[in-house]
Structure formats: C-alpha cells, structure tokens
Model the fold of this input.
Amino acid sequence: MKRTRAYATALAVAALAMAGTVTANAQEFGTFTGPLHHISTVASTVPGNGDVNPYGVAVIPHTTGDEFAGNVLVSNFNNKANAQGTGTTIVEITPSGHRWLFAQVTPHLQGCPGGIGLTTALTVLRSGWVIVGSLPTRNGSISGPGCLIVLDSHGTVRETFAGHGINGPWDMAAVDYGNSAVLFVTNVLNGTVEAGGKTVHGGTVLRIGLAVPSHGLPWVTSHTVIGSGFPEALNSSALVLGPTGAGLGSNDTLYVADTLANRVAGIRDALFRGSDAGTGFTLSQGGHLNGELGLVIAPNGNILTVNSGDGNLIEITPSGTQVVVRQLVKNGAGALFGLAVQPHRDAVYFVNDDANTLQLLH
Done:
C-alpha cells in the first residue's frame, strides 16, 4: 500500500513539474512545508540601539551561559540609520516572543578588516560558541573583506578568523561534532568591488575545519576552497549579491543558493573533498526560484530556500523537483534572508526585513 501511494505521488509531482505549477495546493505527501499554512510574528528583531535589517537566524541547540536551548539568535546587518553593513547586534528571542540583546560587537573590532556589519552567516555550536560573519561598510561603501567573529555563550567576542579565503562571508552552514566542527562559508567579495556593479564570477565556498576543545578557544585546523566561480555583483538593495545560503544534505552534498543564477547548486563529497568543484552541479534552476538567498535542509532531507525576488519559500527534493511554493511575505522582494527549522516541530523560522521581525511558518 505504501509503495502504491508513493508511486502515485511521484507521478503526480512529475506531472505538476512538467506543467510548471508545483504548489502545496496540489500534492503535499512527502513534503515538509506542504502542510504548513500559517504565519505568525514571533517578535521584533530591533534591539535598544535601533539596529535593523535582520539577516542571520540560528536556533540554540543546548543551554549554556546566556544561551537557552530552543531560543533563536538573529544578527542585524544595518544600524539605526539603515546604513548597510554597519549592524553590530545579535538578539536572542524565545519561541514565545521575548527578546533581549545577546551581543553588541564593537564597530572597530581588532582582527576584522574593515569594521563590522553582521551577515546571514550565523551558527551556534553545541559547546555554546557563536560564530557570525561580518561584511562591513563605511560611508556607504564596502570597507574591507570582513571576518568570522567567535563569541562565547555570554555574547562576549573572544577571537576572529580572517584571511585564508574569508572575503565577504555572506552565509554559512555548520556541522558540529562536539570537539570539532566544519564550517561551509560562502564569500561574495572576490573581485566584486573592483567590478563596480558588473557581474563577476569570483564567489567561493570555503570549508573551514575547527578544533573545539573543552577548555580554551576554538582554532582553525584547515581552509579548503571546495567551490568557486559563482556569479556576484554589487547591489543597491542588498549591498552585494552572490552565493548565499548553504546546507549539507545526508548524502554529503552541500547545497548552495546561487542567487544571481536563480539556481540551487550541489557540491558532492563536501566534507572530505580536497579539490575545488567549481560551481558544482545544478540541482534546480529557474522555475519558481527567484534570487534565492537563505537555505536550510528540512528534516525530511528536502532543501528549503527563500527568494529575494518575491518573498516566496521553495521546497526542493534532492532529485531537484520543486515541490512546494509558499508565500511568506506579500510583495516581499528583498524581505527574506536567513531561516531555520524549529526543533521538535514542523515549523520554519524566518526573518522579515520589511517589518524587522522574526516570523514562523507553521
């Protein structure tokens, strides 16, 4: 009986894909977001200093220090004056909507070239370490390559990682083994500023190995470029566009939101490969993809990504079929960035830049 239902479902999805009308209203069996039809506002993401433009979203896995399991951290990219690449704050938000300031990073942090502008690259390790990317500006222009900032569980900056291929860290996925971790960082500043608005193909995916000792600071064990040649360009609305969200599938394929190509790319053998896969293979392109930014892997193994062009979330199977389209923000061009699956529940957190809020699809 299960085989018959699965076969029927496959035929239905294939037919919808051929018709170009794959939506949750058709066949929802086997999808993660298909049954999710409600959107709730969890809380404002604006802290006391007025920072706006929420980008990164990360769910805290374990309680330690000032981090509480199940709460959400959100990084802000703009300051109170809405100047891009100048946001310095991370807020912590409970599932019930209580918010407080988790961290405020000094704008002139030593070891972070160019200043501070906290990006979508945000993760929390089980040990409590928070790692966030910075792509900074000064007087409206990109002022340096930025860095990765490491904070402890009390929101205090403890160290930075810079250079070695870190150049405009825009988004990040992490694999946490406890005493070690692997970061996959997308970078968008390789030749972008010099091109003055023209599209260049310098975007990279950098794999960073970390040792995470029980005492002392995390330290970098390796840097490996596993993807390169992704299109990137300066952009008046988002400051810069290029490879953004990343998520590691159970098949050791890293999926990357190739924003300017309206494409989700795949890089095979992501954890162990020693060579550059270039732009990888194309999992899915066109269709309902429209300048996708944030990306995360759903519990069922499907890929969730959100469009910068229209405010939609797209769910894609590992075979490349776009199976669900869900509108998160009406007329939401430029409103969506980071997203994360809510633990122990079929629901997805996402930030709404238009309203400066954390919201929940459930």
